[in-house]
Design a protein that fits this description.
40% helix; alpha+beta; 20% strand; 149 residues; Sufe protein. Chain: A; single chain; binds zinc ion
Length: 149
């Protein structure tokens, strides 16, 4: 099995069985993200304990890429600090938009499965939706919605 098949399997798995797909009743932050290009919608729930993201989850509906991306993101960031989340956002954004050629997909572990969307510009926003939603939730807690446009 080559890496491309492996990455495809990760996306299919996380789309079929999204991790952390639930509501957090006592969330510190709740933010709705929308990608009008594809129709992807998600609600991101964050529970903060000081500087640490003690729990995060999502609900919503969208294409396989958007759901898998959100699933992978929540899995990766649980227990991380707000600073670490910001650093990971920058690396993922650099990877997916090709703005930062220095980001090696392999250094991102399972998240590298999303790197394939770079070949399909119209799908990049599907993959980055959850990341933009996360960033806005952390930096602008007063916001209730975010759109990729
Ligand atoms: Zn989509």
């Amino acid at each position: 099995m080559d890496m491309k098949d492996l990455y495809q399997d990760v996306i299919v798995d996380h789309n079929r069985n999204p991790r952390n797909f639930r509501k957090i009743a006592a969330a510190s932050r709740t933010l709705e993200g929308f990608n009008p290009l594809c129709g992807d919608k998600l609600i991101l729930y964050l529970k903060l304990e000081g500087e640490r993201i003690s729990d995060l989850s999502f609900e919503g509906s969208g294409c396989a890429i958007s759901v898998a991306s959100a699933s992978l993101m929540t899995e990766r960031l649980k227990g991380k600090t707000v600073t670490e989340a910001g650093q990971l956002f920058a690396r993922m954004h650099g990877l997916l938009t090709r703005e930062d050629a220095a980001v090696e997909p392999e250094s991102l572990g399972k998240l590298a499965a999303l790197a394939g969307v770079r070949e399909y510009p119209s799908r990049v926003k599907c993959a980055t939706l959850c990341w933009h939603t996360l960033k806005t939730a952390l930096e602008h807690p007063e916001n209730k919605t975010v759109s990729t446009e």
